[in-house]
Amino acid sequence: MLTTRRSSLLFVTLALHCLFASSGDWPQWRGPNRNAISDETAWSSTWPKEGPKVLWSASIGTGYAAVAIKDGHVLTMGNEKGEDIVWCLDAATGKVIWRFAYPSELDPHSHAGGPGSTPAIDGGFVYTMSKHAQIHCLDAATGKVKWTKNAVTDFGAPKPEWAFSSSPVISGDTLLLNVFASGLALNKNTGDVIWKGSGVSAYASPVLFKIKDGTGAAFFGKETLYGVNLADEKALWEIPWKTAWGENNPDPIIVGDQVYISSGHGLGAALFKLNEDGKPTRVWENKAFGNHIATSILSDGFLYGFTGLIHRKPTAEKPYSMSCVDFKTGQTKWTQNDLLGQVMLAGDRLILMTTEGELIIVKASPEKYTELARAKVLESKPSGGKGPPKKCWTVPVLLDGRLYCRNANGDLVCLDLSK
């Protein structure tokens, strides 16, 4: 499965939940623990009819990248006039601290196009990847390039149908990307290959998990989820998961020896148990719960997520919906129709950003759907017949009472949710 090109030994030195710096940061895709869960509780879901106060806004270019935040700096990406731009903004004011641009043509085949990958901040450096697999390591203070690679031209990675969207993850001195079906590992200091997999990747990002003798990583390929031991590059397990168009978009959720997978196009969701021989056994499946783009939230034994194809209109037979599902059994606890978007959790409240730009706060409870607040905070712009619509496909981020939301057209807003 893996083709080895070792340039240095791989040491896994950090535990799964201690990959990055302080708990006061949100330094990567889906946060410090890559689960889109914040322990922040001192924030308000009570606001005027017109919605929360806008602290600042910025135009960052076309794309879907979420924000990463460290030491009061907000990192994100967008595309303008044939260039990708990595932005470093002041978290309190939105003022540009630095910007780094490089040639990267907008890919209209990939819906609105633009970067779909969220930067990762590790130590004093920022790691990014474009739709075209251009990989950059930048100085976090200045934006100066330390090294750059291209997974296609330098490493031979085959391009998936809708281009690359994997967000980087760091484990020790290793940069991991869901490039190739079974992953790509680079030396984070030099960009040199440690190992590379084979086959066509999907669009999820790598997920780290603990194993008996170290750390493993899950990489989603076009038709299979691969578990790989980072220490020796060996395959731990494989779970076939063939989705239409290879659209394995949401990250898997791994808890101990259990692996949750979901995708759209009618495949639904399933939980697998990893046996000692490495062969997965299906525990349950739920065809009615199909996460197309957004990764679900797992909290207190329950999954919260969306069903519905994000680029198609709902129908009476196939409405958009949000559901709460028992992680242990796959039983649906409740379903609320007419909801589709992205979600994070802060304390005991879910923060939803719908595809149409509505911010909704929902109580995280398996008992019933309880909506606490709702406001329109972003525009979801139609195409006007000249291209795909500029929907809101990006997960919101809450840190220090500030909520960061963006749409595909490049409108980024920072909202005041502080008490």
Number of domains: 1
Query: What summary fits the major beta sheet?
Result: 5 strands, antiparallel
Radius of gyration: 20 Å
Q: Please indicate the percent range of residues in DSSP E strands (runs of 2 or more).
A: 35-45%
Unreliable stretches (pLDDT < 50, length at least 5) are 1-23
Overall shape: it is globular
Give the integer mean of the pLDDT values. 91
Structure classification: mainly beta
Oligomeric state of the chains present here: single chain
What is the C-level CATH assignment? Answer: Mainly Beta
- Secondary structure tally, helices: 0
Helicity range: under 10%
At the third CATH level, what is the topology name? Methylamine Dehydrogenase, Chain H
CATH superfamily: YVTN repeat-like/Quinoprotein amine dehydrogenase
